[in-house]
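Suppose you are handed only these lines of text.
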Amino acid sequence: MSRYQASEVEKKWQAKWANDELYKADLSNDKEKFYNLVMFPYPSGDKLHIGHWYNFGPADSVGRFMRMHGKNVLQPMGYDSFGLPAENYAIKTGTPPAESIDKNTEYMTKQLSLMGAMWDWDKSVKTSDPTYYRWTQWVFLKLYEQKLAYKKEAPVNWCEDCKTVLANEQVQDGHCDRCKNEVIKKTLAQWFFSISDYAEKLLNYDGLDWPSKTIAMQKNWIGKSTGCDVSWHVKGIDAILDTFTTTVDTIYGVTFVVISPEHPDLDKFVTEENKKAVAEYRDNASKKTDIDRMADDKDKSGVATGSYVINPFNGEEVPLWVADYVLMNYGTGVVMGVPAHDQRDMDFAKKYDFPIIESVQLESGETFVYDDHDKYHIKGKIIESGDFTGMDIVEGRTAIIKWLEENKKGKGTIQYKLRDWLISRQRYWGAPIPIVYDPDGNPVAVPEEHLPWELPTDVDFNPDGTAPLARSKELLDRTEKIFGKGYTPEVDTMDTFMCSSWYYLRYPCNKLTDKPFDREVDDKWLPVDMYIGGPEHACMHLLYARFINQALFDGGHIGFKEPFKKLVHQGMVTKDGAKMSKSKGNVVSPDEFVDTYGSDVFRMYLMFMGPFTDGGDWNDKGIKGLARFVDRFWNLVSEPGEVKDAAELKRNLHKLIKKVTEDFEKLQFNTAVAALMEFVNFATKNGIDKDSAKIAAQLIAPIAPHLAEECWSVLGGGYSIVDQGWPSYDAELVVDDTVTLGIQINGKVRGELEVAVDAPKDEVLAAARAIENVAKYISEGELVKEIYVPGKIIGFVIK
Ligand code: ANZ
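From them, the structure of the protein bound to ANZ can be written out as follows.
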């Protein structure tokens, strides 16, 4: 058996494809478009890893499959090149980030080219390039014009290790998403985007073909709660406190009210003798993380303010306490305590001896504590609650809210957990925020004619907790020169998630110098038809991009609301069950395998590991087997000849077309590879003719593009195989004409038999009785019944 010369063949075709600009999309062509996008990589010193291959290889197969279906495929690639790794590397080695990024992108481009994918390099972007970040700054200015960008002093998440603030989405379980360091609170004046104004719009997923889990994660992060505000009069003081609750049906069960230690009006309610205790308590609370404060399993604590508030329904006076399980940045920062039906309130009441009074019960008469899931669907009734007694819980809520509104004691409200997106970063390697301050400190937008508002280079970027740009003389001089004496520049840079929130709009228009994108071009090419990337971006990149896209839509800059029509998450490739990471030292580099076996084998091997969306555990044991399969495919297809059973070959081939087509449509690459293997086994024994060989080459083309192009060319097909269409199958030929049935004896399977679908009953039964094992059982007793259900079962009953 001759060996397929992968390395030679791959080099040859890669050079030709590049030279012919085969994968450069002609955007003006009116064939049906297919925008095939992958999450662009960060050009780190670690180069392309297996995860990239696992994402990009199959994504390219989707693009190829679509192109073979006659679609005009745009499949761009670029670099998300601003961000901390390059900056940290610069701090360690002294190499300016721009330099290391250039080196890394060059190397990664080479690696990406060895993949032999359909990247349209003509439409590439690099977010740290001034020709790109100029427009990131433009997007900021548009949001500023639309009043969606503002600066505010607020307690923000601070990572002491990265020496910068972080957005809420970038804090996971109280730790920095990047370096895993614990995040603390700091009060700082920072720039925010009003993503929370878009909460309701972001909850609309109409027309999006997204994984339901990702939608659920976003919905949960946005966290919509429907409830009401209740106004409580503070006894003896001319003041009202509003509480937010989702379960106002429990209002008659309130035995205390708790206020957040950060509430701005708190001091008003603290009586003289409680001042010291409250001050101390507030001080302690500020040192805790929100997670610890909210956790159900943590001990609850609080102190009395000395004031009392009056329940608007029954006029009862209940004490007002300060407790840190109430957060200031949710609802109104004040909560009505219902210990009978809320776990945290119950823990609190038990500790401080507040009465526990039931006000709702289940249909069964049992008492219960609300949890997040049953809140809006619970079936039960209101008890001991004045005029509302006896009402169904959910209906009663509506009646109570109606009463509140009629009596001006509250109103129905909706709360979202989603907070505004903090985009300031006290770091160097990012797009400068295009804002300056006048001598009075008022922000002034940098006019568009001064974009790009360039990142200064005269900066010592060693982090000291203050923004490195503040140390640039050039930036200050530039600001004064353009705006006048006394003007100062904003010195924070933008969160790099800002760069990646609009890059898909730039790819088709990457060369425009007078605008970020052309509306007509983008309206034609977007939304993205297929977006493949990691699930870890569910509540970060994928949420930010939807928000920016919607804001640009509302600003009239683009004509579509949603950026990504279909989204797929690839699974994760692990090593011995663990996530690959440098610190664990278990990172597998793709390069040596690509070098030894070629890109096609490596890509197919990854695909063969398991279902694409599940991922799998890396193990190089089987890769030789895949290389052998490629050899066998080559030997079979490149030299067609004598065929033993032409009809059988035809049937097998058409079944293969059906199977592979349907598998590719569902991104089930592993089973497509398996079907191709099975076909090669059959055809190697049976022989293959030239036309069938050409079809086999077409079928493998999306997943082994070099091998397919080589086979196709040897078989005399036109160039390139991606433009030769996709084979179709004859529906009649793919219907199975035999089935394999189990043979049961007294209900137990004792054998199996392959029978023609239309075989007569007598024949089937006779053949079954003749099977040795079956005959043995029958001879041991008396045969009383024979059963044959065509397509399903053969059975015998013996006494
Ligand atoms: C009374 C009550 C009785 C509550 C009961 C629950 C069960 P979600 O669904 O997450 O929106 N809450 C309101 N504001 C809060 C804050 N700033 N900090 C901490 N907790 C706060 O939860 C809404 C519920 O969380 C509200 O409904 C309130 O407690 C509490 F049997 O009010 B509830």
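What can we learn from it? The two ends are 57 Å apart (CA to CA). The mean pLDDT is 94.
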